[in-house]
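2.7 Reproducibility. Because tokenized structures are sensitive to small changes in the input, we list the exact sequence used for OGRL1 protein, including any N-terminal residues retained from the expression construct. No trimming or masking was applied before prediction.
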Amino acid sequence: DGTDLTAKPKRSFYAARDLYKYRHQYPNFKDLRYQNDLCNLRFYKNKIPFKPDGVYIEEVLNKWKGDYEKLEHNHTYIQWLFPLREQGLNFYAKELTTYEIEEFKKTKEAIRRFLLAYKMMLEFFGIKLIDKTGNVARATNWQERFQHLNESQHNYLRITRILKSLGELGYESFKSPLVKFILQEALVEDTIPNIKQSALEYFVYTIRDRRERRKLLRFAQQHYTPSEHFIWGPPRKQKSEGSKTNKKPASPVSIHSSYISKHKKSKEPKNTSVSGSSAGKTTEERKVELTKNREENDQDEQGMNCDALKENNSEKNSDTDTGQPSKSEEIPDTSDRKEDASHSKKDDENLNNDCGNHLGTTEKDLCDTENSSHNTSVDLQDNLDKDTLSGGTATKTKDELKS
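Resulting structure tokens (single pass, no recycling of outputs):
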């Protein structure tokens, strides 16, 4: 019993589908079983009795009122008192039609008796109607009737039918006050705790206005215990955001680029200091330094190209046999690929460590491995800064851009 009480409730697929059809796709039948003879309207006009008991509406409202034993144990009258556009347990009762609903709303005699039937059933549950807007409160005999309502759960089906019928016959505004009252008694006052599952599964979702449903669900969520077992309504935003971050982690390439951007930012003060010191020099000194830097870069590139050509000529035969590329430009590309592969491997390891548990160590390793590869780019950036300050424009060859 203890495990049943603490078990988390589950949503009913049948209830969700049934009430969705009630709000959006009514009627629930394709073909009428009977011809449209307006039997529900004629019953409320006291012209025909309900079947199979053969009792007229006036007798029900006058003699059955207050007879709780008869109202409890008779199961055939409720389908006639609160008709719907769907079949109930009493197969003698007929479904409402759209034409019959319009005629019912125009008949004052039928509307007056319908409200009297609603008051009679509310009193049977221990509730009373206090105004014309649908507000309800406890009746004088509420303690006895609430105890009975908490134990006889077949009456929860009757309440669902009553709420549906109120919406069909022009009293949609009466639903929300009744459901709010039931939720208050079940969740806050704890007078009818057994009804809370049906109230959240059925009663709330008979209301067609989406905003009213959300108000009731928010009220129920505030008072529901335990709070983690509240399963109605949309999921919490924190859980949804956490699932999104788990499903879509940051890519290793983006992490790698962020590390490199941080590394470059650490070098920026050096660039600014160099550019600031060069700004204090004269124009002639800056021109001499630029020409010297260009000559040194050209000599370095020529030396690198010569070494690459010598290696290419010495391994020409092996290249032709193994099918390896013979161009000197592809040699640094393969090293770049290996370097990128090593960095992506490190980034994958960082992702497995929750993306940042050892962020300082990883960033330090990346800076150490990237120092040699970024020295040339930093020198070129310094030259570009110097050239911009002097007002000149430098044209780079394709080999310089690749290096």
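The two ends are 76 Å apart (CA to CA).
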